[in-house]
UniProtKB/TrEMBL annotation:
Gene3D superfamilies linked to this entry: NAD(P)-binding Rossmann-like Domain
Protein name as annotated: NAD-dependent epimerase/dehydratase family protein
Location of the PRISE-like Rossmann-fold domain: 64-355
CDD domains: 5beta-POR_like_SDR_a
Amino acid sequence: MENIALVVGTSGITGSNLAEKLISKGWKTYGLARNPDINVNGLDPVAADLLNIDSLRTALTDVKPTHVYITTWMRNDTEAENIRVNGLMVRNILDVLSEKKTVQHVALVTGLKHYLGPFEAYASAGFLPETPLREEHPRLNIENFYYAQEDEVYTAAQRDGFSWSIHRPHTVIGKAVGNAMNMGTTLATYATICKENGRKFIWPGSAAQWNGLSDVTDARVLAEHLIWASTTEAAKNEAFNVVNGDVFRWSRLWHKIADYFKVEAVGFEGEIHPLQKEMEHDADLWKEIAQKYGLKENSLNRLASAWHTDLDLGRPIEVMTNMAKSRKLGFTVFQDTEETFFELFDQLREVKLIP
């Protein structure tokens, strides 16, 4: 039987990389987004609003997927609203697809906020789990939209009989424009701005993150993991952490990134310097940089998500994940994290998103 994928959120870092990987493996692949203007050869775009079930029914009339990959979410002002909106998006897509009776597996991408708490209480006192993070850690006794998304998948799976997998990456590093959580490109734009006007490349985060061990998730590794779990019998109906497989210290990587961009690095010197504040007046400067170097995107807000990078780098504890569960079941893909960042920077230059 032919594998037919529906990637929900195909305009994001995770969704676009997944679509490319599926197509390279010969899958018929549909990509759903509100504005699916995606430069992925071989992708069948589907324009729909996940909050409008009639829009979904119309857009998916002729789409009968065997595998569904949910890689999207929508940021709202409160966690209660995050729960309502993001739970509804998952429910709507699975309700529409239920009528087709073709879905064999649903994969949902969430993240480490499963363990650390939502944005409103992110890694705050009282919500600091033991690291390395393991999948068996219980849910926190606090509102969290990731839990709502999971519960929608579990409910639909019980109703419709498909298998599922939950994927919890650490910070995802990969190319995307207009993405709400985009550390790699955020750091690239910040370093570019520092180089252009002679500013120092100042570490924005905490002492714990500067000195501690960390890991991240290359979008290409996450794509492989999603496909693996959705096609491996032993991996079905399980939740997984997914990271590159190595660990690093920002105290080394920050200087390596500075060397790449030929800027002067400043490490942790006793206090946090939020990147959102450091870059709050740089939008006009970025327009000048884009014009000067002929870049394709002159809106800094579509490239940088300083608020989210601050959340990650400002944590009061070191954060890394345990991958033993995936390894035991046969997932062996590994990626060097330094290469993840430098390959991304090379790619951003190649497509004229940074000079």
